[in-house]
Every structure is written in C-alpha cells, then in structure tokens.
C-alpha cells in the first residue's frame, strides 16, 4: 500500500505505464525460466499442456533483448520497478517465511486480511483463525 501511494504521487501516467510494463516483462521471463527449469528437473510430472521447448527458449531470447533494451534506454524507470518488486520481500518474510510468529502478530495479520477483504469485496470475510475451526 505504501508503494502504491508513493507511485500515485508521481502523477505521470507514462512513467507509471513504464514501471508496470518493466515489472510485467520481468515476471513473464521469470515464469518462462521456471517452466524450463521444471521441464529439466522434473520431466515426469503431469502437465495438461506440453509445448516444444523451442517456443519458451525463443521467447526468452526476445525477452532478454527487451529487458536489456529497457535497462539501457531507461535505467531509472527500471531501477524504480525493481525497487517496487523488492518492497514485497519484507512482506514475504513477515507473512510467509516466518512460521513461528507470536499470536499477536497472527491476530494482526488476520485482522488486516479480514479488513482488506471487506474493503475490497474480494472474498467473503471469514474473521477468526483457521485453528479455531
């Protein structure tokens, strides 16, 4: 939320589109790299759709060109995009990686989740911990 508020203060739509497009290209490339790694390390797992590896490899070649061109032509925008992505790292460590959180932290996270669900009408709110059920 804090990163979104800061980005909203920029006010320039062109710059915001550049941030988002760089982040999207980066995420798409990492996804395709993950596909290739899984095809190599776990070739026997079930895949409902299986494509020839030449397609993702060709996509990665174009992806690398676009990413390198973006980094060369607008390094500040790409740097801000990377900073926006990195703002999620502390959230990951606090919410996912840290397993033995104190109960007060768990309650705070649950109440924030419930509040966010109610605010955005995303999911029917289920206030209360899953451990109680």
Automatic annotation (TrEMBL):
Record has Transport as a keyword: no
Gene3D superfamilies listed in its UniProt record: Amino acid/polyamine transporter I
Highest taxon of the lineage: Eukaryota
Keywords from the UniProt entry: Membrane, Transmembrane, Transmembrane helix
BP GO annotations: D-alanine transmembrane transport; D-serine transmembrane transport
Keyword Cell cycle carried by entry: no
GO molecular-function terms, A-Z: L-amino acid transmembrane transporter activity; neutral L-amino acid transmembrane transporter activity
InterPro entries: AminoAcid_Transporter (IPR050598)
Transmembrane segments: 16-39, 51-73, 79-98
Name of this protein: AAA1 protein
């Amino acid at each position: 939320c804090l990163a979104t508020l800061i980005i909203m203060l920029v006010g320039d739509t062109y710059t915001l589109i550049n941030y988002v497009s760089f982040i999207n290209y980066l995420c798409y490339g990492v996804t395709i790299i993950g596909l290739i790694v899984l095809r190599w390390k776990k070739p026997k797992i079930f895949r409902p759709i299986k494509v020839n590896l030449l397609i993702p490899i060709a996509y990665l070649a174009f992806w690398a060109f676009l990413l390198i061109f973006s980094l060369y032509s607008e390094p500040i925008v790409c740097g801000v995009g990377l900073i926006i992505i990195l703002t999620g790292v502390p959230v990951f460590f606090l919410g996912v990686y840290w397993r033995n959180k104190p109960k007060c932290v768990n309650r705070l996270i649950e109440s924030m989740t419930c509040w966010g669900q109610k605010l955005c009408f995303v999911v029917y709110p289920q206030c209360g911990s899953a451990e109680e059920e």
